[in-house]
Amino acid sequence: MEAELVIDRIACDGYGMCAELLPEIVGLDDWGYPIVRPGPIPDSLLGHARSAVEVCPVLAVRLRQAGAAGTRR
Amino acid sequence: MTLTSTRPDPSATHTGTAFARRASASQTSTRLLAGPPAVAGAESLFDHRARLGPLPGRVATQLIPVLERSGLLGRGGAGFPVGRKWRSVAERSEGRAVVLVNGAEGEPLSRKDRNLMAFRPHLVIDGAVLAAAAVGADAIVLYVGAEHASARAALTRAVAERTRELAVPIQLVAAPVGYVSGEESAAVHFVNAGDPRPTNVPPRPHERGVHGRPTLVQNVESLAHAALIARHGDAWYRQAGLGDTPGTALLTVAGAVTQPGVREIQIGTPLGEVAAGAGATREGTRGILLGGYFGGWAGVDEAWNLPLDPAVMRPRGFAFGCGVVSFLSPAECGVMATGRILDFMARSSAGQCGPCVFGLRAIADATHRLATGTPDPDDLARLERWSGEIAERGACRHPDGAVGFLRSGLRVFGDDFVRHQARRGCEARARTGTN
């Protein structure tokens, strides 16, 4: 499955762990909140992406099938 | 701003002055506002039915395809096709859907929704009753801005006039004051839990809304058009409109004009014609705010001949939005005017999502520093960067609207922003002779 990273923007408190684990996909803005590069995550990074989901202290990160309609990045 | 019938303007062939009785020549442009003038107050049920006739029987089940053929677009700001929206609720309703009539009108410059509710309450309720029958709803919620006192009074009276005939109960809910409380997921959240903040989507309201049921959230003007389409048909609706998008629309005209207020136009009427009808001139205009705070600025040269039609405006980067057209006077600074609105947008954040809470505040503060001649060295550069970094990073589209508005300011008043960043003074102040 082609996966992409989704942030729950209401839950996110800007801990920044996702950016630390997955700098290829997640950057941080000037206030420490994630900016996610759109598009599917390369297979080589999927392990790190799963870690990012697991370590987020507020459970704001999840993986979903790339291109799913009706949701926001 | 008041809603008054003003003296007729012979040049305004495509615009209907608010609630004034008009000659037959303007009948294709004056539909929602046809009938007695605003000074007559809220139209009673008796007068409403005498003027328009009763709602046609057995129309409900066939109304969705009629609305689809009519080309009616939602008037809350997003412009989503009304027929398609009703269908998406009807497909899921199993007779238990909810119709949430959105009269929150939190847009600061807009007046058209509250005026429609205050003077034509039965047209709005007709639309809600038809929607409930068409989508299969067993409850109607009128969600009306708490500050819109005459609208709420008119609707309360109007519901009372119909009590004995209502097939579906109608509840009036006061929407909390605030820009974001009219956002559809926020409206549903408030009705369900008393919390007027947007929620994560999906699920969208048409999937799971009020009390967990499929919910049609529809702006009051959209419903009023639907009530007329049910009576006169989709072909009648399409007789109005000068370009690709059929029908008429309510505008709120504001700012540097001699006759501000609500009026009805055929969609596709050129902006310059609306300007002329309201007493705005090209020389007396520095820029035009189109579509409200969720829309953006347009320059005078690019906008004066622009047809007010979403199908024309959207590809060119302009918003029809909720129908606000506001003229900025040359005596006012574009940077200052942009900063004022950005400050409002920052204060209006529901305070849930970091990029919105911090980003909009930072954008508003930087613009304020530029406007007041005290910029940090990199304020303009940061504004340009932030304008591309914040959109689509909130649960709702409030931050998207704010940065879209910022981008329009940077584009239309770009020279002024550069001049303010370089501390070379303000063109508007130089022009008016103040320092």
Helical residue percent band of chain B: 40-55%
On the 0-100 scale, what is the average pLDDT of chain A? 91
Q: What gross morphology of chain B would you assign?
A: globular
Largest interface: chains, residues each: A-B, 17 and 20 residues
The secondary-structure class of chain A comes to alpha+beta
Proportion of helical residues of chain A: 10-25%
Strand order of the largest sheet of chain B: 1-7-6-10-8-9
From the N-terminal CA to the C-terminal CA of chain A, the straight-line distance is 18 Å
What is the beta-strand fraction of chain B?
5-15%
How many strands, which pairing sense, and closed or not: the largest β-sheet of chain A?
2 strands, antiparallel
Pick out the low-confidence regions of chain B: 1-13, 20-26
Structural account:
The complex is a heterodimer of chains A (73) and B (435). With 73 residues, chain A is of the alpha+beta class. Chain A contains 2 helices and 4 strands. In chain A, strands 1-4 form a two-stranded antiparallel sheet. The longest helix of chain A is centred in the last third of the chain and has 10 residues, at 46-55. The two termini of chain A are 18 Å apart. Chain B has 435 residues and is of the alpha/beta class. Chain B is 42% helix and 13% strand. Chain B is built from 18 helices and 10 strands. Chain B has helices spanning 45-52, 60-70, 82-93, 112-119, 121-135, 149-162, 184-193, 220-232, 234-238, 271-278, 300-303, 310-313, 334-347, 354-371, 379-389, 398-412, 414-421, 427-432; strands at residues 15-17, 97-103, 137-145, 170-175, 215-219, 248-255, 261-266, 287-290, 296-298, 324-328. Chain B has a 6-stranded mixed beta sheet with strand order 1-7-6-10-8-9. A 4-stranded parallel beta sheet of chain B has the order 4-3-2-5, sandwiched between helices. Chain B is globular. The interface between A and B is medium-sized, with 17 and 20 residues.
